Amino acid sequence: MSPVTNTPDLVPVLSAGKHRSPRKGACFMEMASFLAGEKWSDHPRCTHPLLASMARLVNDALSDDERRRIATLVPDVVGLVGDDLAIDVSLAVHAAATALPLVSATRQNVLAVGLLTAERMLDTLPEEHEDLHARCEAAFSAVPEAHTWAVRYARDARVRERIFRRQTAPHIVAYAVEGVAVACIDSPADHLIGMLEQAVADLRSRVLAPVPSRITALPMKV
Q1: In what helix (H) or strand (E) does residue 67 lie, and over which residues does it extend?
Q2: How far is residue 44's CA from residue 35's CA, in Å, rounded to a whole number?
Q3: pLDDT recorded at residue 22
Q4: Which one, of 90, 151, 77, lies nearest residue 121 by Cα?
Q5: Which of 132, 151, 193, 219 is the most exposed, fewest CB within 10 Å of its CB?
Q6: Coil, helix or strand for 39?
Q7: Cβ of 147: how many Cβ atoms within 10 Å?
């Protein structure tokens, strides 16, 4: 008698865009919903919304060959959820800090303001986040003119937590991914994948969500 297995008969192929069913393929977050056993969706409950947004954007910015490289990250985002403001801030920082030295000069000013806003939000958190402050400072030092412009433009501007979560952080992430994707640099895919990898690793350290062995053992077609 053959052993019983929970492995599904159909494993979706990782591809760009939104898909009506697994038979049509799967974007990064649709694959996550599939692995988590949730209803088929590119906005599953198993992953923090801002991280899910970053994953969808990176997924769609990559070519089919490049997308294979993020397939192994899909199980890592399952269970990464939480209400801590530090999650939103860290994701915004990682996105902006990655993109700021790479994007065009016209985009640098906007991203510098976004990163400065995220850094100021860091100062409102009860815990120390020296690693995130270091990421901000390293990115600013790479583009001092953009940093100076952002400080002059934003002055002492602050945003409320609700606005940061709902608008500012998502806009930072989207603008950062788009900026890297169209930047005149070597291998933008390497930087996009690195952005997602770093964001997932950082969030996993904050949420401390172990990946279920039954998910990591699931074969994936990419």
Answers
A1: helix 64-67
A2: 11
A3: 64
A4: 90
A5: 219
A6: coil
A7: 22
The pTM score is 0.86
- DSSP category for residue 212: P
Element spanning 153, H or E: helix 144-154
d(CA 177, CA 92): 11
Of residues 212 and 27, more confidence is placed in 27
Distance of CA 196 to the CA centre of its chain: 5
Which backbone phi and psi does 26 adopt, to 5 degrees?
A: -155, 135
**Residues 66-102: tens digit of each pLDDT:** 999 999 999 999 999 999 999 999 999 999 999 999 9
Hey, which residues does 80 pair with through a beta bridge? 47
d(CA 151, CA 117): 10
Residue 80, both tokens: 């990464």
The CA distance from 32 to 80, in Å, is 11
Residue of 202, 218, 175 whose CA lies nearest to 32: 218
Token pair in block for residue 171: 């806009």
- The predicted model gives 101-114 an average pLDDT of 96
Helix axes of 169-182 and 49-61: crossing angle, nearest 10 degrees: 10
Structure tokens at 190: 């390497």
Residue 89: CB atoms within 10 A of its CB come to: 26
Token pair, residue 174, equals 């989207």
Measured CA to CA, the distance from residue 43 to residue 49 in angstroms comes to 7
Residue 63: the pLDDT is 93
Structure tokens given for 119: 């850094």
Q: What is the pLDDT of residues 122-131, one digit of tens each?
A: 999 988 899 9
